[in-house]
Amino acid sequence: MSDFHHPFLPSATPATWLGMMGGGQLGRMFVHAAQKMGFKVAVLEPAADCPAGHASDHLLSAGYTDAAALNALADQCVAVTTEFENVPAQSLATLAERVFVAPSASCVSIAQDRIEEKRFFTECADRSGVLPAPYKVIYAESDLDEIPDHLLPGILKTVRMGYDGKGQVRVRSRDEARAAFAGMNGVACVLEKMLPLAYEISVLAARGANAQSVVYPIAENVHRDGILFTTTVPGPNVEAACAQRAQAAALEIISRLGYVGVLCIEFFVLKDGSLVVNEMAPRPHNSGHYTIDACVTSQFAQQVRAMARLPLGDVRQHSPAVMLNILGDIWFDGASEQIREPAWDKVLALPGANLHLYGKDDPRRGRKMGHVTFVAPTLTQAQESLLAACGILGIPA
Ligand code: ATP
Ligand code: MG
Fold first, then answer.
1. Separation of 44 CA from ligand 2 center, angstroms?
2. What is the pLDDT of residues 17-29, one digit of tens each?
3. Ligand 1 mean position to 308 CA, how many Å?
4. Cβ 332 vs Cβ 373: under 8 Å
């Protein structure tokens, strides 16, 4: 590997290529940001028809562990990143023998495993001051006999592969926990205490190859049916002291990881005002999409800078913003299976609207199809546009 501090500059002849593991919408928005800066992007993804593939300069349609494809990606690119949280960490380690990989396999593997992640957060608590929710690791049915009372009611979550509320079940009793664990096909789980949430926030941070770190403004998130529904920045509930604590904790976590790239950390704010760290995503995050339209440097441009070892960009937010996720549900009229295009013309007529669609031609209920970010001189104006958009799209506000 070349000198650690040497940046990979965008160049036309020969082109400087960046590599992306994963072909979803996060990869697609990364491609847009990278191309804007003069890079070319190669995407490795098993599905031939994928959001990032449509935008990329080169698509390698292969499995994430395909040795020939990993070699081809390493040959072509100066640096590789991932948009897919569950990319096999071993593939990142293999790539790292040949090219610069950010974030590293070891950072990604911590974020892929709720047990390792919670251990790491707990280790950081001496200086971050923030702990994860109380929990117990459940490897086998017998572990359920020893659930302490204070963990109930709780949430049983699979240790690996959870996303958008999948792989988790709310349980009120040991019997419900047993039934839920039986339904998880024997995979390791954690039982987490159900906490009294006041609201949820996420902190987007980035760290460069030169160890410089930056942190974006706090985003306040509302989930529906386990999926992110809206992100509001600045968060209407977020107090300055809480924001500072969360940002400081995020900076402690990202530097302790020795992380390079964009990292998003989710926190709970409890009814008593205390802060609990939930989980982290080793990549740009849905709750950071607002940065495309509302910040000097988007989370995707930031990822490009970090992996290319360029200086990190200004995280300043220039407009209040609200982001509304667009799920496949709104292509359907009620219970009908008939598909119709939502009234984008009416949405785009709203003040401050920025429409982002991911190029998926198969709308399904619960599938992330795009998002709309409203920016405005005041948060109230942005929120008014969001409410109007919900009305137009038939989304209960
Ligand atoms: P993501 O889509 O963010 O990857 P996920 O499926 O990995 O989600 P979590 O973020 O752990 O799952 O949980 C999803 C949501 O469930 C949280 O945003 C929160 O609303 C709720 N939740 C999770 N854990 C707890 C808890 N211990 N107490 C109360 N609510 C919780
Ligand atoms: Mg989450």
1. 25
2. 999 999 999 999 9
3. 32
4. no
